[in-house]
Amino acid sequence: MKNRKLVYLVMLIAFSMILSGCAGNSALNNAVSWPGMTEESGTVYVSYTSSVQAVADGKLVWKYPAEPDKGLMFFASPLVEDGKVYAATYQNEVHVLDQKTGALLNKITLGSNKNKILASPAAGEGKLVIPSNDGSIYGFDLNNLTSPVWTTKHPSEIWVQPLIFENKVYIASLDKQIHVLDLESGKILKSQPSNGAVMSDLILSDGKIYFTTLGKDVSVYDPATDEITSLMTAQNEIWASPLIVDDRIIVADMGGNISCVDLTDGKSVWALNATTPDGADYIANPVALDNGNILFIAENGDLLVYDIDGKSVNVRSANGKMMTTPVIVGDSVITAMIPGDALLRAYTFDLKEDWWYAESTATSTENTPEVTETSTK
Amino acid sequence: MWESFVNIFLNVLLYIYKLIGNFGVAIILFTILIKLVIYPLMRKQIKSSTAMMELNKSPEYLEMMEKYKDNKEKLAEEQMKLYKKSGVNPTASCLPTLVQLPIIFALYQAIIAAIVSTPLGMLDLTKRVNPAFLQIGDIFPINPNFLWMNLGQPERLHIPGLSFGIPVLAVLVIISTWMQTKLTAQPAAGGGDQGGSGAMMTGMMNIYMPVLMGFMAYTLASGLSLYFLISNLFTITQYAIEGKLNWKAMKIGKPDFSAFTGSQSPKQTSAPTRTASKSSSAPASSSPAATDAVEEKIDYREFKNKKKPKKKLQQ
């Protein structure tokens, strides 16, 4: 009888543990993201999981924090401004680091650490703007980070880096709105609906702001007239930002359809289908290479180079998932991946491997690249 | 395979959300939909339990119990023969419970998958949504708020002045689970030892199930707690419609274990057992006077440990 009682008890506990196990997995899925990456003066700053690392030419320059801190998670692309690196965390903080050494200079804590900062902070015209999903947007004076100059409450989450232009802040929120805030006061000057949630960066080109939406729409916001104009509708949802090259806008939707539209007359220049065999999404923004070609990266790690007329130039695959927008450093294009055999991989413009960098598992210290040297060239 | 199963739930849940525009109401409607789908199974369970109860009180069954009381293997064999002859499936009542387990797991994963809080979660959601069925751009972002709850987080009601949140939904889940367990308690199938273990199992369920469900409601996403609550209320309503609610079991401090005593009656040996009154064709609950009289003689502890009644008899 006692055995039977024990069996019932074990069954109930097992049921509870299985369900709790589901919670754990889901929480994990919701807790991680892909690396955030920024380039400045030949150095790549990459934030991923519990650290921010500065990598130059495949070698680690510094790593922050020096000792692993599992209580911190960095995923938003670091902002580099005036010799400082601003790294936002999933703990609602922004760590201000010395650009050269990675030493912690300041720490901005925003409300409860249960909230996250998903989007990169933005800096410009003497101000630092931080969107938090605690329901607020914070405006700081770049010379005084002790307390915000203004705080603007916002009902929806912001996943996209704000854009500062002509003393205004442009923000795309998940509730399908484009907001214009006064940079000095944080006051919302205008809010307009967008046709779907904006998932990637707002692109400023020639005084206009271009963006794509999950509602399959490619639109432009004209700050001069405060009007949003739809430029085209894609076949599928769009995550990646558009690329503006001369008078053309190039867009890759999540289904692998790539379109090029002439901005002067709105007509399609070319369109192609770059669907991968496994139907991978296009999440990373396309980038223009210095040789005039365009690089597209599919989520499955496929790299595709097309010329400006839509002709395929090069294709290769990387061993890992790629959702991070690549950066250009000299004659190399640097990609970040998860989970792969390397954190960063650099390729030449014709997609030959240049160098790779794998995050060291060894304990590192600030500004001691010789300790964590793990790259090859 | 499993992910496809979860995705079906996810798509249906999101489709309801698209129609209603409220994720909490979508979960409630989805729960009702699930319960309606398994309604035939539940009805079969109720009927099966009733048939078992009637069979356990039949003279043929009581005679068999007495005849093979010292040979449990033979008794089990004869019981199965009798069940087969009477067209009763003793395991039928387990099926709806088993069916609900994967539903609970799938619903939980669907809720968590729907309420995304990071880009990676969103990317995962776009892959799970069937584009022929739903356009993710139309429904994203999903508003997880319902009343005072965030359905993707454990529920707490924060009252000004209190430094802690009150887990209202967890309390409601505990109460409704306890009520459901008590109100829908059916007589244990089988006799002799099996009846005792059935009683013991029911007694344990009365204690452990509300605690377990309450613990899960306290720690897991409140969307799942909402499912538990609505599911419990629906089950109670269903039993009420079928006229099978055991209201007597709700007496606090004086539990009605008449349902379990059918297995004891064949012994017909001493005070703690029910005797002639049990062999009447009317259900125990329909004869309050007889039941009450018997209840006074029954020591609850004897169902916890079957050796105890003997001690009581010796006194």
Structure description:
The complex is a heterodimer of chains A (377) and B (315). Chain A contains one helix and 32 strands. Chain A has a four-stranded antiparallel β-sheet with strand order 1-2-3-4, with no helix packed on it. By secondary structure, chain A is mainly beta. Chain A has one helix at 2-31, and strands at residues 36-40, 43-48, 51-56, 59-64, 79-81, 84-88, 93-98, 104-109, 122-124, 127-132, 136-141, 150-153, 163-165, 168-173, 177-182, 188-193, 203-205, 208-212, 217-222, 227-233, 243-245, 248-252, 257-262, 268-273, 287-288, 294-297, 302-306, 312-317, 327-329, 332-336, 344-348, 353-357. Chain B has 315 residues and is mainly α. Chain B has one domain. Chain B has helices at 2-20, 23-37, 39-56, 59-67, 72-86, 95-114, 119-128, 136-139, 168-183, 192-219, 222-241, 288-297, 301-304, 308-314; strands spanning 145-146, 149-150, 157-158, 165-166. In chain B, helix 1 (2-20) packs across helix 6, helix 2 (23-37) packs across helix 11 (222-241) and helix 9 (168-183) packs antiparallel against helix 10. Mean pLDDT of chain B is 74; it is low at 189-194 and 255-315. Classes of the chains: A mainly beta (377), B mainly alpha (315). Chains A and B meet through helix 1 of A and helix 6, helix 7, helix 8 and helix 10 of B.
Secondary-structure element order of chain B, as H and E?
A: HHHHHHHHEEEEHHHHHH
End-to-end Cα distance of chain B, whole Å, is 61 Å
Q: Any low-confidence stretches of chain B, pLDDT <50, length ≥5?
A: 189-194, 255-315
Global shape of chain B: elongated
Rg of chain B, alpha carbons: 23 Å
Major pleated sheet of chain A: 4 strands, antiparallel
